[in-house]
Design brief:
α13 runs antiparallel to α17 and α32 packs across α33. The protein is mainly alpha-helical. It contains 39 helices and four strands. 67% of the residues lie in helices and 3% in strands.
Length: 966
């Protein structure tokens, strides 16, 4: 099972090169994994029908009893055959539906196969949490598939609407899963179904939340708005996701959990009422639409309501009818969608008012459509008839609520017959006053997938008894009342057949009076759910704008003051209530007087920040406070922290200076006297409160400090640097998470500078038509030697010629030339000495970044390009890859981030040892280096390009503003 699922995702990742090489024929290769899954499931039919199950599990989070568990039983057998079998045919259909040069075909192909893999894993999942993971994967991939052709606004809106509705439902479902798992003591689905928890209030709430997720996925009212709009997707997506796969996930979940929770008081009212209402509303809406796909879409909504009623009714015969109806619905609705795609492909339209005579021009296509439509209308001897008879018989044997539901389903079946006939008439009949629609011929390969599905519905009508054992194996998990029902095409004349005849007659009457029905439907139509959804979003956006306009005033000082005020109020309330200083040791000012002197200087620099009006002075004073904190680390005996703090402050000050080039020299915000009188006491009070809180927290320690144990553990491994060992071994999970956050933050910040794309533009000096940004602000100097009078200049930097003579600093160039390589060597030394001396990947990466900053400050962006010709993203991505790879290597011994050491001997260098912590730290080194380089290129080189472009010094070939990269 796991191999089949993994193969889907692996081949989906290879879709792009396959499509580039094979074009649309790549779909034939991509159909192999679902085809293999279909064969695998077919081989296990007999075992599943006998009540056997195939299981596999892997402990994911053992402490919470969460595992990746898979289980193939009777219900999963049915869903795997549908998801994989129809998925195979849809992928084969795509090979004829698309052209080789279709835009975005590679991404579409990969997403479609990945969706098939996620759906396969979903129906096999035997753990609530892993089921939720695969559930959300289908949501994401369906968003991408519906949004294919994202250049159209309707596609984007439809994809976002589907994502919004199903994601909110999924989040509610997750909460329900957590409550059920806690109540049952396990998240294993098979165990919960076998021994469900008591129907307490918490379980009832959980059931409602789970039903929210299931009903939103299956487009049950009031969540049905997203499915018709999802018809913006290509026809293969509609046939697969909205007939056989994604929308069936909700019905599947209801069917899976019904044996355990159908007796919960809230289950049946929700399922029966909403399911029946959806069947009626969807069928009625389908009678007045003219787009063939929309007719099928609302018909699908109607049928999903019917399926939900049967799956959630909660007794054996209804469950048996649900299983055969799920199969029948897939075998008639998928080919109808595929035939619609063929008609659209051949005629160029799906508007039934414009189609005429298509049945005569495409007789084979018409035959397939009629066969599938007859099954949808439940005509004998097709599978749809046998399924509808089973459903009517089951509801007839139920209680009063089931009888009312039966009445609704009979009316819904009449609507189904009406819109089915209307679909066939609209797509293929010759209409008076409408010229025959010109069409082109359809190849056999194009028609084969829908034809196979329609023939399957025909064959399984008389052969429905062959499925009885499999479906009964699932239905027998429900309590039976009286003689169990068995599937067969003909059960004789009875009430069920009479109800079917009433539905056919009612449907024929509705079609005969279709004009009056359409007028009546439009006259009494209330606002559509899609319109309501749009107005709700518009109101939410307006509310958000009002709130944002009220809260976000554009003043950073106001924001900071608000944060400090909230912090101060909360902390003072806690301090006044708990009084944690009682019994605490009295604080002492310092350990040595030097600490006090450094602290006084640091506080003085911070206070001076309040008096300056120039931005550069404020940056320098703020930097001095950081250097003061680093000095305190030095005095306290923490060289690792001091070194890191010095490097961070240095890089931060350079970044500030680069940013200040594009900002006014002075602070523009005017501060009145009373505002200053409020801000200074607020800042001092917040600082004092934080100091008291830190003292109280330190004094409240009851357990012995962990420092001694960490020192001992570090020494036991033959190491000396406790801080570095904590970062890359004892607390490496934290380091790994912080590294990912650092990379994401840097990418987000620098992306604000790169408005269009982040790809690097050319750094050729020939692009310049004037001076560089480093000399644009300086007036040209007069009196300089010209021609032969000029002494030959020595270029100390690779790009020194790009600097104007009056803007060059020989001292700075020489220092950059002399210090660049030693600083890089120092960074490597700090990286590898971290086990026993101050250093580490983080500080080493910062030091290497300082080396690159030195080259940039000395020679500008061309010099930076010469010093670091590779993209920053390469360093960042490679660093994350190495750190994550080292962490995952520990899985070989059962857990991630397992430290190991390899010792060896080299002829020249002697004994050596290589530990996983060093490799992990090397990943951190590359990541930090990439982040620093990315920031310098964004705030330095990119802004240089903008300055040069504004001054006309950059060649037009460089592209539009913001469009080029760094």
């Amino acid at each position: 099972m796991t191999t089949l699922i993994v193969c889907h995702f692996v081949l989906a990742a290879c879709a792009a090169p396959l499509v580039r090489r094979l074009g649309r024929r790549a779909f034939l290769v991509l159909a192999l994994p679902p085809a293999a899954a279909t064969v695998w499931a077919a081989v296990r039919w007999e075992g599943a029908a006998a009540g056997e199950s195939v299981t596999w599990s892997w402990q994911w989070i053992p402490a919470y009893d969460v595992s990746v568990a898979l289980r193939l039983d009777a219900l999963a057998e049915l869903m795997v055959l549908l998801a994989a079998g129809i998925g195979t045919l849809v992928l084969l259909y795509c090979a004829s539906y698309f052209a080789d040069d279709a835009p975005g075909l590679a991404g579409f192909a990969g997403n479609l196969l990945a969706f098939a893999g996620a759906m396969l894993a979903l129906v096999l999942a035997d753990d609530l949490i892993s089921l939720y993971v695969f559930w959300e994967l289908t949501t994401v991939f369906s968003f991408l598939l519906i949004g294919y052709g994202s250049e159209h606004k309707h596609n984007r809106r439809s994809a976002l609407q589907a994502l919004t509705v199903t994601t909110f439902g999924g989040l509610a479902m997750l909460i329900g899963f957590l409550i059920i798992g806690q109540a049952a003591g396990t998240y294993r689905i098979s165990t919960i179904v076998a021994d469900p928890p008591e129907p307490t209030l918490a379980v009832s709430v959980a059931v409602v939340l789970v039903l929210c997720g299931a009903l939103s996925k299956s487009a049950i009212w009031p969540f049905s708005l997203w499915l018709p709009n999802a018809m913006a997707a290509p026809t293969p997506v509609s046939a697969y996701l909205h007939a056989a796969a994604m929308v069936k996930a909700g019905v599947y979940l209801v069917a899976r959990l019904a044996p355990a929770f159908a007796d919960v008081p809230v289950w049946r009212p929700v399922v029966l009422v909403l399911g029946a209402a959806t069947m009626l509303l969807g069928g009625w809406r389908a009678l007045r639409l003219n787009d063939l796909k929309l007719v099928l879409a609302y018909g699908t909504v109607s049928q999903l309501g019917f399926l939900t009623v049967l799956a959630g009714a909660g007794y054996r015969d209804a469950a048996l009818a649900a299983a055969v109806m799920i199969l029948g619905h897939a075998l008639f609705k998928a080919p109808l969608f595929l035939v619609t795609g063929i008609v659209d492909h051949a005629a160029g339209t799906r508007d039934l008012r414009k189609l005429s005579g298509v049945g005569r021009a495409l007789p084979h296509v018409c035959a397939v459509a009629v066969l599938a439509a007859a099954s949808m209308a439940a005509l004998p001897p097709l599978l749809g008839f046998a399924a509808k008879e089973a459903a009517f018989e089951a509801l007839l044997e139920g209680d009063l609520a089931d009888r009312w539901t039966l009445a609704a389903t009979v009316v819904g079946s009449a609507l189904t017959t009406a819109y089915t006939v209307r679909f066939v008439w609209g797509a293929f009949a010759r209409k008076p006053g409408v010229a025959d629609t010109p069409v082109h011929r359809v190849g056999a390969a194009f028609l084969a997938p829908p034809a196979l599905l329609a023939v399957g519905g025909l064959v399984l009508g008389p052969g429905v008894g062959l499925t009885d054992r499999l479906f009964a194996a699932y239905a027998d998990t429900f309590p039976a009342s009286g003689e169990p029902y068995h599937l067969a095409l003909w059960h004789g004349f009875g009430t069920a057949l009479l109800l079917s005849a009433l539905a056919w007659a009612g449907g024929a009457l509705l079609f005969a009076r279709r004009s009056a029905v359409t007028r009546l439907s439009r006259r009494i139509a209330w606002p559509t759910a899609d319109s309501v959804f749009g107005h709700l979003l518009l109101g939410l956006e307006r509310l958000a704008l009002q709130v944002t306009g009220f809260v976000q005033r554009g003043s950073l000082s106001v924001y900071l003051a608000t944060v400090l005020a909230v912090l101060l109020t909360g902390q003072l309330a806690v301090l006044a209530t708990d009084r944690p200083w009682r019994g605490a040791a009295a604080p002492h000012l310092w350990d040595v007087p030097l600490q006090g002197a450094v602290a006084v200087l640091t506080c003085g620099a911070a206070l001076f920040c309040l008096t300056v009006s120039r931005r550069m002075k404020a940056v320098v004073l703020a930097g001095l406070t950081g250097y003061g904190a680093a000095l305190l680390f030095v005095v306290q005996g923490a060289p690792d922290l001091a070194l890191t703090q010095f490097c961070v402050e240095t890089v931060s000050m350079v970044v500030f200076v680069l940013v200040l080039r594009r900002m006014p020299v002075r602070f523009e915000e005017s501060v009145s006297t009373w505002r200053r009188a409020v801000r200074i006491p607020l800042a001092l009070a917040a600082a004092a409160t934080v100091g008291v809180v830190v003292w109280a927290a330190a004094s409240a320690r009851t357990a012995p400090p962990a420092g001694a144990a960490m020192v001992e553990e570090t020494a036991r491994h033959g190491l000396k640097d406790v801080v570095a060992t904590i970062l890359v071994d004892l607390r490496s999970w934290d380091t790994m998470g912080e590294s990912a956050v650092l990379a994401a933050a840097a990418i987000g910040v620098t992306s604000l500078i790169y408005l269009h794309r982040r790809s690097e533009g050319t750094m050729a000096q020939a692009d310049l038509e004037g001076r560089t940004a480093w000399s644009l602000s300086a007036p040209p100097l007069t009196g300089l030697p010209q021609g032969d009078e000029a002494a030959p200049e020595r270029s100390w930097l690779a790009a020194g010629e790009t600097l104007a003579p009056e803007h060059r600093s020989v001292v700075l160039e020489v220092m950059a030339r002399l210090l660049f390589h030693p600083i890089l060597i120092l960074s490597v030394y700090l990286l590898f000495c971290a086990e026993n001396m101050p250093g580490g990947g983080f500080v080493a990466g910062l030091v290497a970044g300082v080396a690159l900053i030195t080259r940039y400050l000395a020679g500008g962006r061309f010099e930076l390009a010469e010093a670091a010709p590779l993209q920053p993203g390469l360093f960042t991505g490679l660093g994350l890859l190495i750190s994550t790879g080292v962490a995952l290597l520990g899985l070989a011994k059962g857990t991630v981030l397992l430290a190991w050491t390899h010792k060896g001997h080299l002829p020249v260098f002697g004994d050596y040892h290589l530990g996983s912590t060093v490799l992990f730290d090397f990943g951190v080194y590359l990541l930090v280096l990439g982040v620093v380089l990315d920031i310098v290129r964004a705030l330095g080189a990119k802004i240089d390009r903008q300055i040069e472009r504004a001054a006309g010094a950059l060649a037009p070939a460089d592209g539009p503003a913001g469009g080029s990269g760094r």
